């Protein structure tokens, strides 16, 4: 089996041997006890799941079909191995992790294939379509919208087409700042190849370490520095997509008026329109300066108003982010000893500073704002932002906390597995709304979540931040947690559904950057109207009449 393609743990996030621990975070355990009533001191931690306990549905791939795939990609690059099929069954959503730990694998891909190049992808697709098989493209497997799983009712052979061997930067057009990149390149691999030539893509989602360029395009991903570099929808200019019999080619253009945008149709298509093999992305020279500064605001409303004012101003920071009071409390309470926050923790200077300003420790909000570019540019941007922050009653606290945030951001995802080990859920829902609606959405989601917690009968936690600012609005990102009672997935559905419904009821979208998959498809009509769904259905059915490409995702039957 291909050993050059690295996969995450079969049962959780990230690399084997890496996990969350809180020994160096003295405030973490008391915080968790207060937030969700879980005493980490007395709770029993579940042991690591054993693959021997997992029942994997038998592969339905015929010997003849596996032989045919083997003839295309070579014996080392096609497998019906149980572990590999399980790795390709789900993404890393909470529902996925609960099901995988609970031995709930009702359907797995029957065969996993790792083509080496676009020609092999074409031959695999054509062979699969010829035998009426289903093809599910696989990037890093990091999605959290239920975008990968084959449905239990699927009776046809399911092929997981893993792009992991297509990971080269093929060419850089330095005059235009465009790089041709193979779709299976994971974040670190891509960035290393670009950095070696002095370039960066500027796309850094929290899942950067384990997600791919093709996956980013297929889910309409957004990275941390989107205020400067744009979402992947802005960054991805050209595309090559393997479809039955031929390749759909979209040349990289700065803009075009050649009818409805086929490029936009591929963006967010979650594998339903074909297999993306190559993406031409905008790249930038590595900036001379890259800083993230921390600020405090007395209240959420003051902070949001400041973010809006920044988005309307001449300032162009790379990151605008503000945590609400609860997320701020979480960040302060769970920082490492002697971290960049130490001088601001409750025991030391923070209460004094806050009371001298007449601020309430329970309402303060922590903000991170990033600056990137030439030294003079970064300095000028900061000056413009500092003036806006001051006008909105905020105060800067320097670069230390920002450095820490930047270094630790890729570690946080491991926390979810730790909470699951302890019998608790920790998950996220994110949205975007116009500036005029953001506070309404924020409050409505809190209310909906607390109602859902009351229904389940638990003390639940919810916190939020605003990030990714645009001219007309921003993304709101909610993190919620509670201790499971008797029926984890039903309880999860109660909370998650309440939050999603609050989004659409308050003029916000069902997802700003995680996609639709199966997790959010129930709200699609409310998001884009029944006519919108009709148009989308017509696109999928017209472009894939045999339903060979990842059927029942985004628009579900
Ligand atoms: C801890 C955590 C943090 C996250 N943070 C962020 C974040 O900050 N920003 C963000 O945008 N997302 C985030 N995500 C979500 C996820 O990482 C993104 O959806 C990501 O873009 C998925 O990429 P992938 O390569 O892992 O795709 P996969 O999970 O493998 O696939 C996702 C979907 O895309 C399709 N697909 C994948 N590759 C191709 C291809 N080459 N051609 C056609 N279809 C393809 C698949 O069939 C599937 O439908 C996070 C997820 C987790 C678990």
From TrEMBL:
Active-site residues from the entry: 477
Task: State the UniProt keywords alphabetically.
Answer: FAD, Flavoprotein, Oxidoreductase
Where in the numbering of this chain does the FAD-binding PCMH-type domain appear? Answer: 105-286
Record-linked SUPFAM superfamilies: FAD-binding/transporter-associated domain-like, FAD-linked oxidases, C-terminal domain
Q: Which residues cross the membrane?
A: none
Q: Which InterPro entries match?
A: Alkyl-DHAP_Synthase, FAD-bd_oxidored_4_C, FAD-bd_PCMH, FAD-bd_PCMH-like_sf, FAD-bd_PCMH_sub1, FAD-bd_PCMH_sub2, FAD-linked_Oxase-like_C, Oxid_FAD_bind_N
Q: Where does FAD bind?
A: 206-212, 270-276
Molecular functions per Gene Ontology: alkylglycerone-phosphate synthase activity; FAD binding; oxidoreductase activity
Q: Which residues bind substrate?
A: 416
The residues annotated as site (Important for enzyme activity) are 321
Cofactor(s) needed for function: FAD
Q: Which domain of life is it from?
A: Bacteria
Q: Which GO terms describe its biological process?
A: lipid biosynthetic process
Write out the similarity annotation.
Answer: Belongs to the FAD-binding oxidoreductase/transferase type 4 family.
PANTHER family, alphabetized: ALKYLDIHYDROXYACETONEPHOSPHATE SYNTHASE, PEROXISOMAL
What is the name listed in the Swiss-Prot or TrEMBL entry for this protein? FAD/FMN-dependent dehydrogenase
The organism named in the record is Sanguibacter keddieii (strain ATCC 51767 / DSM 10542 / NCFB 3025 / ST-74)
């Amino acid at each position: 089996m291909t050993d050059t393609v690295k996969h995450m743990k079969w049962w959780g996030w990230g690399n084997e041997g890496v996990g969350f621990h809180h020994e160096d975070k003295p405030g973490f355990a008391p915080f968790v006890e207060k937030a969700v009533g879980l005493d980490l001191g007395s709770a029993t931690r579940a042991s690591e799941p054993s693959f021997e306990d997992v029942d994997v549905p038998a592969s339905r791939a015929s010997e003849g079909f596996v032989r045919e795939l083997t003839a295309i990609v070579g014996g080392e690059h096609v497998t019906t191995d149980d572990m590999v099929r399980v790795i390709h069954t789900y993404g890393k959503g909470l529902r996925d992790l609960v099901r995988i730990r609970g031995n709930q694998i009702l359907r797995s891909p029957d065969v996993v294939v790792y083509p080496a190049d676009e020609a092999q992808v074409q031959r695999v697709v054509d062979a699969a379509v010829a035998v009426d098989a289903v093809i599910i493209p696989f990037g890093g497997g990091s999605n959290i919208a239920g975008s990968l799983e084959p449905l239990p009712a699927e009776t046809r052979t399911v092929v997981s087409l893993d792009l992991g061997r297509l990971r080269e930067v093929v060419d850089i057009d330095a005059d235009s700042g465009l790089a041709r990149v193979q779709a299976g390149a994971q974040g670190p691999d891509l960035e290393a190849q670009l950095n070696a030539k002095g370039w960066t893509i500027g796309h850094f989602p929290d899942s950067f370490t384990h997600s791919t360029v093709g996956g980013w395009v297929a889910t309409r991903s957004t990275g941390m520095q989107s205020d400067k570099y744009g979402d992947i929808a802005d960054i991805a200019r050209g595309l090559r997509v393997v479809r039955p019999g031929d390749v759909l080619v979209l040349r990289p253009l700065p803009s075009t008026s050649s009818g409805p945008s086929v490029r936009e149709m591929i963006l967010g298509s979650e594998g339903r329109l074909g297999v993306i093999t190559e993406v031409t992305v905008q790249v930038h020279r590595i900036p001379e300066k890259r800083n993230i500064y921390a600020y405090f605001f007395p209240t959420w409303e003051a902070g949001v108003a400041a973010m809006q004012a920044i988005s309307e101003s001449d300032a162009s920071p790379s990151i605008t982010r503000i945590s609400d009071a609860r997320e701020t409390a979480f960040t302060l309470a769970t920082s490492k000893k002697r971290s960049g926050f130490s001088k601001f923790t409750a025991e030391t200077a923070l209460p004094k500073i806050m009371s001298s300003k007449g601020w309430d420790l329970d309402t303060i909000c922590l903000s991170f704002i990033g600056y990137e570019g030439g030294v003079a540019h970064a300095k000028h941007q900061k000056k413009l932002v500092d003036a806006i922050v001051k006008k909105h009653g905020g105060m800067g606290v320097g670069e230390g906390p920002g450095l820490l945030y930047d270094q630790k951001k890729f570690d946080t995802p491991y926390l979810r597995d730790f909470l699951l080990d302890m019998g608790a859920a920790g998950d996220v829902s994110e949205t975007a709304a116009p500036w005029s609606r953001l506070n309404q959405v924020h409050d409505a989601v809190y209310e909906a979540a607390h109602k859902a917690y009351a229904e389940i009968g638990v003390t639940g936690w919810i916190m939020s931040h605003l990030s990714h600012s645009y001219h007309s609005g921003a993304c709101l990102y909610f993190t919620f947690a509670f201790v499971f009672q008797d029926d984890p997935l039903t309880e999860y559905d109660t909370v998650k559904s309440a939050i999603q419904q609050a989004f659409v009821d308050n003029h916000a979208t069902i997802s700003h950057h995680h996609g639709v998959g199966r997790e959010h498809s129930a709200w699609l009509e409310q998001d884009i109207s029944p006519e919108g769904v009709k148009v989308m259905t017509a696109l999928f059915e017209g472009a894939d009449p045999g339903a060979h490409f990842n059927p029942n995702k985004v628009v579900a039957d």
